[in-house]
Amino acid sequence: RRKHPPPPPAPLRSATTMAALEERSGKRAALTDDGVGQSWQLGYRGGVGSLRTLSGWAGFAQHRARSFRSRLTLSELSGALGDMGTLVPLLVACAKVGSIRLGPAMLWMGIFNVISAIQWDIPMPVQPMKSIAAVAISDGMTPGTFAASGIISGGVVWILGITRLIDCANMLIPKCVIAGIQIGLGIKMASKGCSYWTSGGWTDLDGKATFLVCFVAGAFMLIRTKLPAALVVFGFGVVVAIVHMVEAGARPLSEGLQLQIIVPTAEEWLHGLTEGALPQLPLSIMNSVIAVCALSVDLFRDPADGGKGVTRASVASSVGLMNLVGCWFGAMPSCHGAGGLAGQYRFGARGGCSILMLGIAKIILALVFGQSVDVMIIHFPKVVLGVLLLFAGVELASVGAKSIARSPKLEEDLMTCFVTAGAYIGGENMALGVSAGLIIAVVQRWEVLQLWCLSHIGSIRSKTPPGATAPGVAVDEAAASPSSLAGGGVGSTSQF
Question: CB–CB of 473/462 below 8 Å?
């Protein structure tokens, strides 16, 4: 037999050539899709601002366009409506007390929806800041005070994001506390939805019979079928709203949108800080940044492992910029919430296409109908919103429960989790719930915390490298490490 000569040896490549090949292969791998819609990673670290070249922008746009086209489905459209139970009641109530006008508020929320869809390609919601909205609804706020509350809250969160101090806050908060926040917020959302049961009688169109029909139909579609439950329930609500408008003699007119610049006075800045921003900041940091990032990792995997979960720095920066820009022009103080993400995911949203469709619909509605959009939303039935809010709350609470179930220290972390949830629900204050949970966590981990502090103090006194054990102090490094203080797994990267 004739033997083939061995192949010639591969030519030696310089380090520059090898680096170029590795970079090219990394780009090619980053542009692949793993079937779940893996985010485009080339030069894209938490936001589109990291793209530095024109070709990078072109590739990014092509990837997003392909992802959106592949997800033009009824499930995505249904998921886009999963947050209506939280959005519409707060918008309508704030408009009734005169804090905002619905036209500009919907326009800006639509713009923020479109930007969020392009930036992350997951169903990241844009929600009203609940604490500020609650104060405005209960006590009343002028438009200037309302805008000042959002600007101050957004500015603080933006600073935490760009300086990455938000990661320090995440390290100091145990994972079981985050689970308690998710469970407490989910239960509160579900109970709020159920409270609409009493909004009417059995024979009223916006009453108990309608609530019961929507609840049974929605539960059946979610559990037994793959039908877009939120889309069907919301469509039924639109029919009921049209009937209400006909009965009341109200007709939406095509009026132009009017935008105005809001400049708060010195007194409104002060009231915005004390009445709106201070109660809102704990909720924004915990629910709008830390909890929503943990939930995104649970639902879409960690970005470090090729998933589409979002980073805390990018979310905090987004929340800050939304309010620093929009609140001057009539926007609702807005944030990203774990409840909205859970609701949209529960009703079928799996990518940014759902948020893109929702944002475009809001923009068109605000531009076409202008001031008349107030009439359209005010007549939407409360019981339909209540059903949507109920299912969204159940989804969020179940995510928190599944997360705490994976904890290696389940008995200890359950107590912290339930104290956090109970204090938040009972006190109706996110800061109170977080504080109660942190107190329980510190008491449970007091010995480990004391050993960890002693080891670091000893290392400083003996001028040894950080992490070394002080002379005469025997410390179990595994027991005294920060990771041992955090408790169970919740899908968050908190260390303490």
Answer: no
